[in-house]
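Sample entry (264 residues):
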Amino acid sequence: MTHPHLESELARLAESDAPIALVTGAARRVGRAIALELARAGCDIVIHHHASEADARGVRAEIQSLGRRGVCWRLDLSELTDVEHGAAELAGLLPRLDVLVHNASIYAPTPIASLNAEMLSRFHAVNAGSPALLSAALCGHLSRSALDGGGAIVAMLDIHAMGLPRREFVPYAMSKASLHELVRSLARDLAPRVRVNGVAPGVVAWPEDGYESDRAAQEAYLTRVPLARPGTPGDAAEAVRWLALEARYVTGQVIRVDGGRSLM
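Predicted structure, serialized as tokens:
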């Protein structure tokens, strides 16, 4: 059940006529940058998180400092039954929704010898299944958006699940490839009232530990990037903002934010 404070906070979003955006995984890294970029563009933000409650509250404080409203919403995206129920409950409480950003994901190397059913299910649930269920539950709100161009869904994809596969990332790549197809399918199913697009980074935030968290691996990756530098979370966030709020005649497309890596 929704906490009473959350219900009242969501209800207060009706006091403003600002667009409302829901960003999954918005507490940290790229998700945080997206939430702040949309807030700077005039949106009130529903800040989804799972275990990063303190970080989510910090993002809310930053959003409020920009003169916008922020509401924290906790949901475990790895349990699809919980996602289905949570999304339906949120849909019943939100006064409206204009932008939905599927940013939350699991990213980790998985040697093929370690592959198992639980791992495949978890990657699929977080990276593809939960975006599908959230989109289904909230597309009614999005279709009624008053934004010029209608409501918008933006999914965070990955160039390495779009024809540039990396070794030892099978569950991640499979799930992100499914998310790419969800973008294409929803673009047809939800037209003309909802636009659906994707942003596919190369590197806009290095992993904090494990694979490519060390300098040598990072430098090796950058030798294959024409712009010879990593991107930033802000680079990805700007592309999300453009697709969500400005690209009124764009749907079913993917913007690669990769410094040219997909060319090599």
